[in-house]
TrEMBL record:
Domain N-acetyltransferase: 9-173
Keywords: Transferase
Record Pfam families: Acetyltransf_3 (PF13302)
Record-level Gene Ontology MF annotations: acyltransferase activity, transferring groups other than amino-acyl groups
Protein name: Diamine N-acetyltransferase
Presence of keyword tRNA-binding: no
Native species: Pustulibacterium marinum
């Protein structure tokens, strides 16, 4: 049986009580660079998002799950995006709150969601887009056998300069 529960954390569907944490994450300008966000989100808009987050990945082409520590604290989110069932692939992104970093949650959450993609969604590949200077994310994805397959030159414009974005893939064995 495939479980979305590990030693350090578990993954669950979004709940209405996640609103304040979601508001904090989505309005953190430090992560706007990777989420391609340029304006803040209101609580109203995020509340509507949460109300519709139950929709099927085959319908909306994305899925966001909460990363919850073993003591039931919301620690972050893991997202599947650009779900493409025809070509059997999906993108993945992850964010863990600073106070939970370095505890193995991101590594375990990434392993669980990748297994979910391969075993339950029957996908052929999972990919990630990581800015070249994001050393923690590069280390995380490489630790889960994602391979670097390309560089998108000057892909992200942030803080007055262009950054390269790295394209990582994990292909189902």
């Amino acid at each position: 049986m495939l479980a979305l529960k590990g030693k350090y954390c578990y993954l669950r569907a979004l709940e209405p009580e996640d609103l304040e944490f979601l508001y904090y994450v989505e309005n953190d300008e430090l992560v706007w660079e990777v989420s391609e966000t340029v304006t803040p989100y209101s609580r109203f808009v995020l509340k509507q998002y949460l109300e519709n987050s139950h929709r099927d990945i085959y319908d909306v082409k994305q899925l966001r799950l909460a990363i919850v520590s073993q003591n039931d604290q919301l620690a972050g989110f893991i997202d599947l995006f650009d779900f493409d069932p025809k070509n059997a692939r999906v993108g993945v992104g992850i964010i863990v709150a600073e106070m939970f970093r370095g505890q193995g949650l991101a590594k375990e959450a990434l392993a669980m969601i990748t297994n979910y993609c391969f075993q339950k969604l029957n996908l052929h590949q999972v990919y990630a887009n990581i800015t070249e200077d994001n050393l923690a994310s590069k280390k995380l994805f490489e630790s889960q056998d994602f391979e670097l397959f390309g560089v998108k030159k000057d892909w992200i414009f942030s803080e007055g300069k262009y950054k390269n974005e790295l394209f990582y893939q994990k292909i189902k064995e």
